[in-house]
Amino acid sequence: MNTKIYNFEANKPFSDRAKSLIPGGSHTYSKGSDQFPSDQPFIVSHGKGCKLYDMAGNEFTDFAMSLGTVTLGHAYGPILKAVEAEIYKGVNFTRPSVIEGDLAELLTQIIPSAEMVKFAKNGSDATTAAVKLSRAYTGRDYVARCKNDPFNAVHDWFIGSTIISRGVPKCVRDLTLQFEYNNIDSVKKLFDEYPNQISCFLLEPLSFIEPSNNFLQQLKDLCEKNGSVLIFDEVVSGFRFRLGGAQEFLGIKPHLTALGKAMANGFSVSALVGQRDIMKLGGIDHDQERVFLLSTTHGGETHSLAAAKATITEIMKHNIIDHFWKVGESLQKGIRQRALSDNTIDYIQIGGYGCKPSFGFVDNKGNFSWEARTYFLQESLKRGLMFPYVVPSFAHTESDINFAIDVIGECLIKIKSGFENGDLQKHISGDIVKPVFRKFN
Ligand SMILES: Cc1ncc(COP(=O)(O)O)c(C=O)c1O
After folding, report:
1. Ligand 1 near 128 CB (within 6 A)
2. 25-63 pLDDT tens trace
3. 285: which residues sit within 8 A by CB, 6+ positions away?
4. Residue 69: CB within 6 Å of ligand 1?
5. How far is Cα of residue 392 from the mean position of the Cα atoms in its chain?
6. How many angstroms is it from 9 CA to the middle of ligand 1?
7. CATH code assigned to 9-75+319-427
8. Domain 92-300 adopts which CATH fold?
9. pLDDT tens digit string along 315-358?
């Protein structure tokens, strides 16, 4: 166990500046200071591989990898080279550049349902474009999204259906319906209540729960029977479960797919891909009324597309999908074994898939505990482990995995005794971390 205890104080001026100038202090709520120990200010200086360095000079082993975008490692050489080569050719032009076609072609070869491709910068752009296109294609206004998905987009159709709906008009909120994963009756109920009115069903095909009773195929069949579009949000699962995403892993093709995060090793690229007859509505060579699909100044930014092309090439070359699964499975197995031998297994829930495992800390009644999560984050960060959630990367080695298992094992012993003695809170020095989706601060 790494017993070195870090000091975070030198980060404070940088963290205070960010908080005073940027609402929320960061550009994603899940990176905000309310998600991490409040007395450990943290501003990143740089990263290399799976190591992260803060402005206080501390080194961390990073298992979160920028919300899962950095699949190969921070500052990964071959991607930097591909980006550099492209930058010197110019980064954005008045007409399409050749790399747009190169990458679009590559995606149609590897994503099973991709017949046409449109690039953007964020996952939200892609999911929201899929919703817009479905509405145009079906001439229907309602959207059905999966209640179990924590997040699909920053846009009103999604945010209006969450607890933070402030700023979204009621008429927009009323158009988003919800169904439950693995509950085909909840899907049938929506079709019964809103006949011929639902444009699309959108969901993450695989997240933490395994599909049962052929749920996804049943959902696709019902969508086709009722004239709705099936959209897979593969912003997280794409390029992770398989190179062709969860749809390749499952053998089920949706009509439209949103891709993002893992596509370009942290560079900003996302894509809407899908069936030609739907996608082409966003084009300029049909006789129907036009659909204003994605149209973004930076959608064809060449070096980001070069990063995506190089990332996909690296994944294929080094069989990196297998590496993701091995890292996650080693963590799941190692943490379980450690917790069993320390008799702390009742305080951790281990789930998810090898390529995207999940670990949650629970109290002595088996309920998810924000206190235990806060204590764990506080103690693990103090020891140089960044493990708010886990997204395996090519950069993670056996020694990184063993380090994480050691730190988690130590923390679990303390969490157990804290719950047994009723004094866990006493060992937490700052505020308890909070969920992103809450109505008030
Ligand atoms: C499943 C899923 N879909 C869509 C998004 C939105 O992606 P972005 O933040 O790039 O807009 C996210 C972001 O976390 C996500 O996890």
Report:
1. no
2. 999 999 999 999 999 999 999 999 999 999 999 999 999
3. none
4. no
5. 12
6. 32
7. 3.90.1150.10
8. Aspartate Aminotransferase; domain 2 (3.40.640)
9. 999 999 999 999 999 999 999 999 999 999 999 999 999 999 99
